[in-house]
């Protein structure tokens, strides 16, 4: 009689990463409400009890997933947008490029979709996501927009009251790919370029 293969022993950090990777897959497939710790453990190839050694419950696992998937992106954006004092339009172009390559072009897009669709049902997690990621991101965006206003580059200063709209192209991409991708592609580069054109006045010498 063949014995079941022994589970591979991994260092704690590698085991934790395997749980996080499995959680992203399971949450994306089942949604937060329907995902179970048992599903995550099965996908990671470990016992349910092992997951609880690292995370006390599903909520803490999801919060860690948000922090570790999107937190480093925010730090990278902050470093790149503040270091060179580039023109505001170019600065937001860098920000959009980071979103495209580091989120929308990876499995993290599924996490953003999940948060967009389900967080209204889980206010505690929504508050955590807002306090740890969104608030800092909006503050960074607002500084860029205020610099653009000081340089006389904005088409309308109304955007200073709603810096949240800067995320519109990214959210459109997430919603489109989740619901309508089978019917046609969304040109994300064109969407970002169009959005920058609506925010900023043309440079001198460019057609209005």
UniProtKB/TrEMBL annotation:
Q: Which UniProt keywords apply?
A: DNA-binding, Transcription, Transcription regulation
Q: Which stretches are labeled DNA-binding?
A: 36-55
Please provide, alphabetically and separated by semicolons, the GO molecular function terms listed in this UniProt record.
DNA-binding transcription factor activity; transcription cis-regulatory region binding
| Source domain of life | Bacteria
Q: Does the keyword Coiled coil apply?
A: no
Which Pfam families does the record cross-reference, listed alphabetically? Answer: TetR_C_11, TetR_N
Every HTH tetR-type domain range: 13-73
Protein name according to UniProt: TetR/AcrR family transcriptional regulator
Organism field: Martelella lutilitoris
């Amino acid at each position: 009689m063949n014995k079941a293969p022994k589970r591979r022993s991994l260092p704690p950090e590698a085991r934790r990463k395997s749980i996080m990777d499995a959680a992203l897959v399971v949450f994306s497939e089942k949604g937060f409400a329907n995902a179970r710790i048992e599903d995550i453990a099965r996908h990671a190839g470990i016992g349910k009890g092992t997951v609880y050694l690292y995370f006390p419950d599903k909520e803490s696992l999801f919060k860690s997933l948000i922090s570790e998937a999107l937190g480093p992106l925010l730090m990278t954006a902050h470093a790149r947008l503040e270091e060179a004092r580039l023109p505001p339009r170019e600065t937001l172009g860098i920000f959009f490029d980071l979103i495209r390559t580091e989120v929308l072009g990876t499995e993290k897009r599924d996490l953003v979709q999940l948060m967009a669709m389900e967080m209204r049902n889980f206010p505690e997690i929504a508050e955590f996501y807002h306090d740890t990621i969104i608030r800092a991101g909006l503050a960074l965006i607002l500084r860029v927009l205020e610099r653009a206003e000081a340089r006389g580059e904005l088409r309308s200063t109304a955007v200073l009251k709603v810096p949240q709209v800067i995320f519109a192209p990214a959210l459109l991409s997430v919603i489109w790919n989740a619901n309508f991708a089978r019917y046609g592609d969304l040109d994300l580069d064109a969407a970002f370029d169009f959005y920058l054109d609506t925010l900023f006045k043309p440079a001198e010498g460019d057609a209005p």
